[in-house]
Amino acid sequence: MTRFLRKIITRNWGLKLLAFLLAFALWLILIPEEKTYSEKTLTVSVETRNTPPDMELVEKPAATVDITIRAKIRVLNEISPSSVYARLDLEKASVYQDIYPLNGSMIVLPPGAEVVNISPNMIRLKLEKTKQMDLEVAPMIVGKIAEGLKIAKIEVTPAKVPVKGPESKIRARDKVLTSPVDISLLTKSQTIEADIILPRPDLRLATSLTKVRIEITLEDSKKSGNGRDAETD
Fold first, then answer.
1. Would you kindly state where each structural domain of the chain is located, as residue ranges?
2. Which has the closest alpha carbon to 46: 79, 92, 91, 85?
3. Which whole number is the average pLDDT over 227-232?
4. Which among 160, 104, 98 has a CA at the least distance from the CA of 135?
5. pLDDT of residue 7
6. Region 23-49: what's the mean pLDDT?
7. Which helix (H) or strand (E) holds 36?
8. Residue 231 — very low, low, confident or very high, per pLDDT cuts 50/70/90?
9. Of 22, 187, 202, 225, which sits with the fewest C-beta atoms within 10 Å of its C-beta?
10. Angle at 205 between CA 200 and CA 211, to 5 degrees
11. Domain 37-124 is of which CATH architecture?
């Protein structure tokens, strides 16, 4: 029986192999197109663009969404999350809208792929009007002045700086601080440069200025207000 089967298999094996190859080629030609496609889901980044210049993004959208894409298997195997992303255009956004739908036209894909599903298919974000105010600069003085001296005057230049940000994050009572200025080593009047520190991370300077000058005027602590030496016991 074994010899009989072997004879059937090996007889005219060249013709049989050729017939198999022709059948396989014909199958590839006639196979329905959808059979050569497949799908896969990627977690991709969300990018916002064209935020109106008079608005601030105060609640940012989710950093990623899940995208199911469809493409030929060969193309699909070459697609990675780095080559796909969601792009949300805020050019026509409004402070009254906080939900924005996502659709296939907002997904940037390599050629030959198409979007099948987006999850979630909408994004929440919040915009506010931009507000600008001049805020007072308050110097941060640390340390203790040397014995025998006292501070006669502290003057900051400029006394106020323009600050902008979301209207809910900036208030007239806010103050801009400076980096700490240690007065413990001062022996005479001096002008010191200090960095500007904003009251909240949502705010930014509306000027190229990043430092202020702090003029510290010292005088002898024994002097009275009229400039004469104070009486001693």
1. 37-124, 130-220
2. 85
3. 39
4. 160
5. 56
6. 74
7. none
8. very low
9. 225
10. 100
11. Beta Complex (2.170)
